[in-house]
Amino acid sequence: MERLQETGQLMGRLMQDMPDQLKEFSAFIKIAEKDGAMDAKSKHLILLSLAIAFQCAWCIAVHAKDCVEAKATKEEMLEAAMMAVVMGGGPKLKCIWRFCTRSWINTSTNNSVKSDSRFTSIHIKA
């Protein structure tokens, strides 16, 4: 949860310093992520792939959590992650390896999101 907490703290500080910009940015995100021609789950899977492609630990944490909340499966999340490798090659594969070995996407009885200092751990109900 550390990365998620850090992201929340950053957004809170920016909201104090730049409230108009953050409100507009948040509104844009909300509109862009809602169901449209693509469903929200597909959009979150794409965002997870992009987060891995950019190797942004904060982004991976946020978008992995969003995927879980959108009821993405472990397999869907790993396939989306592999799309970053298709576009980015070896460095992206290393990022997925770290994501999977340090904070594995685990199957458990309850969906939950946990984080260590670098990566998010996703627990998805089988």
TrEMBL record:
<feature type="domain" description="Carboxymuconolactone decarboxylase-like">
    <location>
        <begin position="28"/>
        <end position="93"/>
    </location>
</feature>
<dbReference type="Pfam" id="PF02627">
    <property type="entry name" value="CMD"/>
</dbReference>
<dbReference type="GO" id="GO:0051920">
    <property type="term" value="F:peroxiredoxin activity"/>
</dbReference>
<dbReference type="InterPro" id="IPR029032">
    <property type="entry name" value="AhpD-like"/>
</dbReference>
<dbReference type="InterPro" id="IPR004675">
    <property type="entry name" value="AhpD_core"/>
</dbReference>
<protein>
    <submittedName>
        <fullName>Carboxymuconolactone decarboxylase family protein</fullName>
    </submittedName>
</protein>
<dbReference type="InterPro" id="IPR003779">
    <property type="entry name" value="CMD-like"/>
</dbReference>
